[in-house]
Design a protein that fits this description.
heterodimer, A: alpha+beta, 3-stranded mixed β-sheet, 22 helices, B: alpha/beta, 14 strands
Chain lengths: ~550, ~475
């Protein structure tokens, strides 16, 4: 029987076993590809993407890492779609292939059932191919350089993509909301006759409030949009050509598609690892699944697992290992709870599987770590937080709660600062005013300047970003000291970055900084309105 | 069937174009950072086809991001659980070499620890397939192995930021992706030399050099059989048959029909140039200053060798006395003592007079010193330079080095780093002289500035002298 015939048979066995264990997945196409092609798919993430130099860079990195044996070791790639696609490395042995198939089915189960994946586009692979065609058409028509620079600029704003649609609904102001359900309608129109309904309008107090509201409505309102690309695509002032808007929406759409994967990396890899180990070992016991032509392949399988679950180099966690251990720990705790767990969490015992599937359906990494990373796992894996102190990188925290909170924090905020668009008409000059919500982590200066310049090139007018920093700055002293400078350490300062697309600038302000976006927006519009009304009054006086 | 296995995949290899675009960007970045790269020690000493890693800020993809120094990162230590190989118990066998418990070379424990399939006290033994005998004592049991859990204050690594001559972002911070591209030295040279050329190159001197042309453009009646031109031979044969026998046909060959292709040794003319490299090796030239001077000359030599076929280089090192030395000595010898800068110029003049007649040779003289000359020598120095210029030399260059090691890029020039007496003197004397070029080296990146100042060649003349030198920018 041919090698692939054997593989097909093995897939059927694994499929049946996985279903019997409760996994639920889409049909999957397993494509056998060469190492070279694997490196390409690795760089593009999906088989076909639009052309951009950064994929060339990533490809170069994949190849370099493989060359130096630094874990350029992709056994498989899974694509979230229906049917799911998976790529297997052609020179893997049959045992490795089998393990990978079990692993892949774990991923597909996760992608199908986890709630954050629920709204993903399951046809994104084909959409991406269409996008690639569109982008190359644009490159033909408008020049490769123009399109490439445009993509560069758009990609700079990609981390600010707002994944959760809930936030968007919340930001809608209360006065624009209409009662939605029949119940709500019933409440708002209930009570009294029609006369009664309008009577209240004529009470003095209400008339006053109404006048206030009318004035408020005249004032410009804060935009408070966190998704910069979404804002740019829909802005009243953004001056985009059609192809530019289209490319922007392509970038937005494709990175939106990757968001669930980014948000569930630890869970997803841990889940797949847990199930491939479970499936392979159950099958090995039941039907000698790890035997090839009479030879025991267990060691080959063990070696592969050892690679997958190796401790990472210091400088990051191995999501496979961490995820796997936490899933295992969940089963352990809910199957056979300690007295403490029994009393505080009210676990009866024997619910391990049930709990696992519940968590798999409803959580993302941040919640997963927050809820289930416990003392035992932290200590077993020797997890710690580290940071730069002076010129050294040192371990700063090993207490399990602190480590857990640091990790949760990183996963929640990620590496992406939250930036609000406050106003698109700063000083009535169509300039953009942004505000970064400061939570103890200052922005990197170089990165901020460069990204802001990218944004300014899209906006085609100067842009400003208000944030807080506590890095060291040289601050000019007053005139009596003849422009001498002094160094200010560590205290939080208000900083404004500005860029017109060419020359980014930073200005530092003394005094107590504002960290809350709502306070900033209120103050900003108050002063803007004030300036406007003063000018208005002056004008009126001049005319009269 | 629910699942499918596909071997004939339709995934198109589209990477080539993106890789090409990426490479173009790398070249562009090298061009922009050439001043930093040129001053890099590793590159000067490396072989031409070697790949070097240069860190390139331009190739970063920018995002709004946090200053990573303030963000705690969570990582793994290697404490607590250390598994042993299920086969040999960590003594060293094929499997544990493969999975990295034991390093292949010395059987020593290395840092990659593994988590064998099952861990915990009764790990492997439970679901162990038959056929493999495992040492019961070491079945995935936790062994402290002398190392305990990581504790606050453990050092993981050092931040290399601000390292010497490594360009903008030289650090290898854990957890932070700093992009370093691999570029071959040849590529760097090519990019660097695009912008350089010998200036004021006159058509004054020519000398003949022999060059073998490889084009077979001559036809002869004698020659080796391997160079037989069959087509012409047949033609000759037919012509002779028609002439002698009244019918044009191929056959009845005669020795006189044979024609052979051959080549001619061409003589070509080329402008000749000689470069005098003068270097101060006195006691006041500390290691770093010498390094900068040698860096300059290393690139100068490399440039001349790759771009011009017919350039002589004369190396002269001096303290109170000057002497001509070999290239090897010039770059590696260490001397000390006081300084008479004029000695180098008179030595150069002596050599010129004996070997390089001004009507045949373009003459260039470069001198690097730290400017600490004995004051009673300054008049001699001015006269020495004047003599050389009147000889006449096409150009003379004087470079003065004021650097202290580790002076950061863009630091303000301190008072003592301003032009000293020698520099001021020379600039005053030769003010307005087109053939005198002075350059001040305060930091490593100034080496490139000096190269550009001295070698701002006139391209039209340069092209003539280049002849078959490889085209710099295709």
């Amino acid at each position: 029987m041919s090698e692939y015939g054997k593989l097909e048979d093995a897939i059927e066995v694994i499929d049946a076993k996985a279903r019997s264990l409760g996994l639920d997945f889409f049909d999957t196409e397993f494509e056998i590809v060469s190492e070279e092609l694997m490196a390409q798919i690795h760089a593009y993430i999906l088989p076909v993407r639009f052309q951009h130099w950064s994929f060339g860079k990533r490809y170069h990195q994949v190849k370099t890492r493989a060359k130096y044996g630094m874990g350029g070791f992709a056994y498989e790639t899974v694509i979230n779609s229906n049917p799911a696609y998976s790529f297997l490395l052609e020179n893997n042995t049959l045992t490795e292939m089998k393990t990978v198939v079990a692993h892949v089915l774990g991923h597909v189960d996760f992608d199908k059932n986890n709630s954050v994946f629920a709204n993903t586009n399951r046809r994104q692979v084909t959409d991406c191919a269409v996008n690639a065609q569109k982008v190359s058409d644009y490159a033909m028509r408008h020049g490769e350089d123009a399109v490439e620079q445009w993509i560069d600029a758009c990609m700079a704003l990609v981390p600010q993509i707002e994944f959760s649609s809930r936030v968007r609904r919340d930001k809608d102001a209360w006065w624009t909301r209409r009662p939605e359900s029949e119940e709500e309608k019933a409440v708002s129109y209930s009570g009294g006759s029609i006369g009664d309904e309008f009577d209240f309008l004529f009470e003095d107090e209400n008339l006053k409030r109404l006048a206030e509201q009318e004035e408020m409505a005249k004032r410009p309102q804060p935009i408070m949009e966190r998704d910069l690309l979404h804002f740019l695509m829909n802005s009243r002032f953004a001056d985009l050509e059609r192809w530019q808007r289209d490319v922007m929406s392509i970038v937005h759409e494709e990175w939106m598609y990757f968001q669930p994967n980014i948000r569930t990396k630890i869970m997803n890899e841990g889940w797949a690892t847990y199930w491939h180990i479970r499936i392979m070992e159950d099958l090995a016991e039941e039907c000698g699944f790890l035997k090839e032509d009479g030879e025991d392949e267990f060691l080959r399988y063990a070696r592969m697992n050892a690679w997958v679950l190796a401790r990472g180099h210091s400088g990051g966690i191995n999501p496979y290992l961490l995820g796997y251990r936490i899933w295992k720990r969940i089963v352990e705790r809910w199957d056979d709870p300690s007295d403490d767990d029994r009393s505080t969490l009210g676990i009866a015992g024997g619910q391990g599987m049930e709990k696992m599937f519940e968590v798999r359906r409803s959580m993302t990494d941040a919640e997963f770590i927050r809820n289930f990373l416990d003392r035992k796992v932290v200590e077993d894996l020797d997890l710690f937080s580290f940071q730069r102190t002076g010129m050294d990188w040192t371990v700063v925290e090993t207490d399990w709660k602190k480590v857990r909170d640091d990790l949760t924090d990183t996963l929640l905020v990620g590496y992406t600062p939250i930036i609000y668009v406050v106003d698109d008409d700063y000083q009535d000059r169509r300039e953009l005013m942004l505000f970064h919500e400061f939570s103890g982590r200052p922005l990197a200066e170089d990165d901020t300047k460069a990204s802001l310049s990218h944004l300014a090139r899209i906006w085609k007018r100067p842009v400003h970003l208000v944030t807080v920093t506590n890095t060291t700055y040289e601050v000019g002293m007053s005139k009596e000291h003849k422009g001498a400078k002094r160094v200010v350490h560590g205290e939080p300062l208000q900083v404004t970055y500005s860029s017109d697309g060419v020359n980014p600038q930073v200005a530092v302000y003394m005094g107590k900084p504002i960290t809350s976006p709502s306070t900033f927006a209120r103050d900003y519009f108050e002063s803007k309105w004030h300036a406007k009304s003063v000018v208005g009054k002056l004008l009126k006086r001049l005319v009269s | 069937m629910a699942h499918r296995v596909i071997t004939d995949t339709s995934v198109l290899p589209r990477m080539a174009r993106d890789v090409a675009r990426h490479n173009r960007r790398v070249r562009e970045a090298v061009r922009q950072n050439i001043a930093h790269i040129v001053a890099n020690e590793h590159i000067i000493t490396a072989e031409r086809d070697k790949l070097v890693r240069v860190s390139i800020p331009l190739l970063r993809e920018w995002n709004f991001s946090f200053d990573h120094r303030y963000v705690p990162i969570v990582g793994h230590g290697d404490g607590m659980e250390k598994e042993k190989c299920p086969v040999c118990g960590g003594k060293g066998c094929e499997l544990c070499e493969d999975i990295g418990i034991v390093s292949k070379k010395k059987g020593k424990r290395i840092r990659r620890w593994v988590d064998i399939v099952k861990s915990g006290p009764d790990g492997l033994s439970q679901s162990m397939p038959s056929g493999v005998q495992y040492d019961d004592d070491s079945l995935g049991r936790r062994t402290n192995g002398g190392t305990s859990r990581s504790k606050p204050g453990d050092r993981l690594g050092k931040d290399r930021k601000g390292g010497k001559g490594s360009g903008e972002e030289g650090g290898t911070d854990p957890g932070v992706d700093i992009y370093e591209a691999e570029v071959s030295i040849g590529d760097i040279e090519e990019i660097a030399f695009e912008q350089l050329g010998l200036p004021n190159l006159d058509d004054r001197g020519t000398r003949k050099i022999k060059r073998e042309s490889l084009r077979f453009d001559e036809i002869r009646r004698t020659g080796p059989l391997s160079a037989l031109d069959k087509r012409r031979t047949f033609k000759e044969n037919m012509a002779r048959n028609a002439r002698e026998r009244g019918k044009a046909y191929v056959g009845d060959f005669d020795r006189s029909d044979f024609r052979y292709r051959t080549w001619e040794v061409e003589e070509e003319e080329e402008a000749a140039a000689v470069v005098f490299a003068l270097m101060d090796v006195s006691g006041s030239m500390d290691e770093h200053k010498k390094f900068l001077a040698r860096t300059f000359y290393a690139w100068l030599v490399r440039f001349l060798r790759t771009q011009y076929d017919a350039v002589d280089i004369v190396f002269i090192s001096h303290h109170t006395e000057a002497r001509e030395c070999t290239e090897e000595e010039f770059f590696h010898h260490v001397e000390s003592g006081g300084t008479y800068m004029s000695s180098a110029w008179s030595e150069a003049l002596k050599i010129m007079k004996s070997r390089y007649a001004p009507d045949h040779w373009n003459i260039y003289v470069f001198h690097f010193s730290d400017g600490f000359n004995w004051s009673n020598d300054n008049d001699n120095l001015v006269n020495g330079i004047k003599d050389v210029m009147d000889y006449p030399a096409n150009m003379v260059g004087y470079g003065e080095i004021h650097a202290v090691e580790g002076a950061s890029v863009g630091a303000k020039m301190p008072r003592w780093a301003r032009p000293t007496a020698v520099m001021e003197l020379l600039e005053k004397v030769f003010d307005g002289e087109r053939r005198f070029v002075a350059s001040l080296v305060n930091q490593e990146t100034d080496v490139w500035a000096s190269l550009k100042a001295f070698l701002s060649g006139d391209k039209t003349i340069q092209r003539r002298i280049k002849l078959d030198a490889p085209e710099a920018n295709p």
